[in-house]
Amino acid sequence: MKLIQVEAHGFKSFADKVCLKLDGGVCAIIGPNGSGKSNINDAIKWVLGESSSKALRGDNMQDVIFAGSKTEKEMDRAEVILTFDNRDHAVSVPHDFFTISRVIHRGKGENEYYINGEEASKKAIKEIAMESGISKSSLAIISQGTISDIAEATPERRREIFEEASGTSMYRSRKIEAQRKLEKTEEALSQITIVIDELEKQRKPLMRQAEKAKLYKEKIEQLKDVEVTLLVHDFMEYSNRLNVLNQDAREFEIVKEELTSKRQNYETSLMAKGTIINELEKEVEALSKDLNEIIDNITNLEIRSAKEEKHREMILSGEIKVSTKDQIDALKQSLSDLNDKISSYKKFIKDKEEEMEAINERTVKRSSRIAETKRNLSLEIDKLNKVKGKIDLIKEVRDNKATLAKGTKNIVENAELFRGYKALVSQLIQVEPTYARAIETILAGATQHIVVDNSETAVEAINFLKQNNGGRATFIPLNSIKAKFINEQHIVVAQTQKGFLGVASELVSVEKEYDVLKKFLLGNILICETIESANRLSKLLEKRYMVVTLDGDVIRVGGVMSGGQASQNVSTFGMDKQIEELEALIPALQENVLTLKQILGKLEHEQDTDITYSSNIALEKVTFKNKLDETIEEFDRYRQKFAQLSNETLELSESTDFVSAISKLMTEKSALLVKLNTQQDILKKAKDEFRDLTMNKSQTDIELNKWYEENQTKITEKAKAESIIENAKKRLSEQYGMLFETAKQFYNPEIDFSVARKLVNNLRQDIRELGHVNLDSIEQLETVEERYKTLKEQETEITSAKQTIEEAIDEMDKIIVQKITETVTLVNNEFKYVFSKMFGGGMAEIRYTEPENILESGIDVIAQPPGKAIKNLKLFSGGEKALIAISLLFSILKAKPLPLCILDEVEAALDEANVIRFAEFLQHLKADTQFVVITHRQGTMERVDKLYGATMQKRGVTTFFGVSLSEAKQLIDEQQKKQ
């Protein structure tokens, strides 16, 4: 393969397009310093892939573009094209002739590479260069500095020269690339191994968790089958019972209404009868009074008749004296006093009658108030009993749900045995009612986990359970757990979303020492208002976190969703709060009941007081009536005496017809006596009826109170039945997603319900003893298994690839050792000859620094010019170093000829005799190697096949032209004179 043409435009000083045609052999490029002749060397290196601007004598790669001069403006691009003759097919380009080119544009960092005008990669260009042996770092491009580097190179750097010569640099490059791939492969394998190990760690617990989850699901399904039947049974049984109780309640209302009406009728009748009795008593009293007056009148008439008779007799006999004035005056005074007394008694009796009338009116009104108060008291007692019944029912439901597992219960009951025992999770976390459903959903069985101070306490407790066959329990050692968090950036994102409420751990409260517990259980879980807002947030955060709604709907890591109708009483936290709220109502209800009882007692006391007072007034009235009667009788006696005294002076002819008057009074007496007896009989009957009414009213009160007591029991029973029915409906709806009508289809009336309830309790106990169950573990295990399988396959593939790379590296190492050994041997033999030829005798040798490790060994050169001792190259003079380095270069080219070698003033340090030897040796080597020599030495110019001169006819712009030797000498002399 030969370089037959170099074209450059815009590269460095080549503002005008340059085209050098090379015909093989030795071609020299000459020109004075500063003419730009070495830019041909830089151009060839640049096309071959040089990426160091320093190696191209610039500060940055943009410096290779023509920067302009006084006469020429700067250029926007630089391009260099090399044309090769590949008819010997030294490289694998499928053409007899091909070009490689490189272009750079000002202001753009990227370079463009082309092969035969088609865009190619830098790597493809470099592979052609390495394949041919003319890469930018090989012996194909040698400058004066490179010769110095060869002479002073370290053994390791010198080895690189031999690798270039042996053609192993390509293998070395490929080996380095393979080693990089091996490193990446090993890194990938290491990462996969780490992930596989991590998955192995996950698989084992996930397998256990998945088995536990499957068992949990089986138990839940069994529980569903049995419990649905029991819930339907409870619903139907208590619905029937509720119907009976409702019928009883209706009957009670009817009976209560009847008894209340009856009682009111009795009270009305009693009041009416009391009024009648009072009237009858008045009538009897009046009749008695009239009767007594008639009797008194009859008696008085009889006495008067007798006295009159006697008086007449005495008057007739002259025994009576008429003057009685003093006695009459005394009687007048007595009559006046008695009249005042009678008026006073009558007024007292009238006042008492008015007071009794007011009391009667008051008792009638109070009876209505008493009846109303009793009704209100009954209602308040109903409310109180319903609240108590609901509390009892909620406690019963809660205790049935939260009954501790056997193991947990044993630890709690023996907590004093463990100094590190703290409490259950449910006892340490306080939750607002708003978030109770969400937190309960998250924690699930974890509410029964036992919190202890450290793992030693947990071990002690577990051993205790084992030794006592005490069941199983789950422990959370505070010193072993770590808080879980959500990435702050993700929280910032979440806070921008509508419906986001916060991180679960921030929505509950604990004592300070349990802060790590709440963050361990809830720190990486988000709470949203609704399933819609939760779904949006989960998608936004790429399903990295569990998101739970206030209704207990869940979107798990990875996107699995679960949920349904919002629960109202499933939450343990919610039940406790509900009990707390209901219990808070009790004092007010009790206060209402107590107040109403006090009001009722006060009213009844006032009623009894009024009745007693009315009776006392009646007695006082009778007493004063008697006193009035006595006073009237006394008044009548005095009046009669007064009349008697007043009439003693009358004549006998004026005496009354006593017989007729007495006869008339006797008739009136008989009639009045009949009427009195009749009224007394009526009064007795009325009193008997009053007594019977009183007894009937008392009996009605007893019956009414009995009905009230019985009804209170039924109200409590009814409240319990309603709660059980409501709970059954909610459990069916919320836990199993069924309406009652749907659930009835699963009802089996033939089962033994007592056995079924035991089975439900056993299943619940089994489920509780399972502790916390990771329902996601089944899907997580499938995901992990799938990933594990994929990674194992990748591990196998990568391991195989690693083995292939290692085998390739081993093979390249063998090739490198073989080729470097072969090259060193050949070059060493040639070096001895060339050295002797160049120095006119002497001895030189190439040696390995590590003969036992040829793959990595450095290469040293030992030389002994004629008449001198053997010494290292660094100890020779500059000219000697250059000649030894050139000798080594020529030895390599003789042993391993290169298709092209560019020598840039490499002979500058040689004396004239050695320059001639140098030039003659080029002619000796040109049969196998094409040389492009950049020189200003005459000895070299005289012995080349073709000369190109470099000049700057326009300042800053290089121009090439073909010259003869004489023209070359003249050109150099003229340029030197100008300088």
Could you describe the 3D structure shown?
This protein is of the alpha+beta class and 979 residues long. Among the domains are: 1-140 and 904-979, Rossmann fold (3-Layer(aba) Sandwich), CATH 3.40.50; 260-399 and 581-735, no CATH class. It is 63% helix and 12% strand. It has a six-stranded antiparallel beta sheet. A six-stranded mixed beta sheet has the order 8-22-23-3-24-25. Strand 20 (859-864) and strand 21 form a beta hairpin. Helix 6 packs antiparallel against helix 14 (572-647). Homodimer.
Name some characteristics of this structure.
single chain; 979 residues; alpha+beta; Rossmann fold; six-stranded mixed β-sheet; 22 helices; 12% strand
Q: How many E strands?
A: 25
Beginning-to-end CA distance, first to last residue: 40 Å
Largest β sheet strand count, sense and barrel closure: 6 strands, antiparallel
* Total helical segments: 22
Q: Look at the helices and sheets and give the structural class.
A: alpha+beta
Oligomer: single chain
Binding site for ATP: 32-39
Main location: cytoplasm
Subcellular location: Cytoplasm
Function: Required for chromosome condensation and partitioning.
